[in-house]
Amino acid sequence: MDFRNSEPPAGPRREDILPDTATAAVKVVIVGGFGVGKTTLVGSVSEIRPLTTEETMTQAGVGVDDTVGVERKTATTVAMDFGRISINKELVLYVFGTPGQERFWFLWRGLFEGALGAVVLVDTRRLEVSFEVIGRLEERGVPFVVAVNSFPDAPEHSLDDLRSALDLPASVPLLVCDARRRESARDVLMTLMHYLHSLAVTPEAS
Fold this sequence. Notes:
- Helices cover 26% and strands 21% of the residues.
- It has helices at 38-45, 108-112, 129-140, 159-166, 182-201; strands spanning 24-32, 54-56, 75-77, 81-86, 91-97, 117-122, 144-149, 174-177.
- Strands 4-5-1-6-7-8 form a six-stranded mixed beta sheet. A two-stranded antiparallel sheet has the order 2-3.
- α1 (38-45) packs across α5 (182-201).
- It is globular.
């Protein structure tokens, strides 16, 4: 076969290559209930083309997946999302998004291996789905921050009221974000990194 006129195989994009200056990498996980915006956050913050495992929702999920409040959602993550962001020239974050449906939560154990911390993404329209998510992190002893994703039609509550409703200790950071905006998603990850640093310096803060 003559390859002379064939195009060379496409290699990795320049932005997908890990910088030579990177000396440390940290794994963090984005968790939350079904439809809270985990895939959106990973995609908006990642400096590389994110890996997603979204599949079209079918009738098989009717009566199994709780879609109250997110009835217009047509696709869902069935394994994980993956992205990467450079915090500075030396430090790189590998960001993993977990599936939200309870029937896929058995995958969480593998995704949490080696993770230093987590972001719990919350939707105030379906606040109750966050309770078990937070409980699982507390059982595992995984440090986490909580980010309230601002949906246009979501009810607004003060952070104090949300902290009380979620039964969060005062030491756990709680902030509002827009998962669609890169700057906002980056702020969430930076909040987690600052929190992890504070725990390393003063472990009693946890």
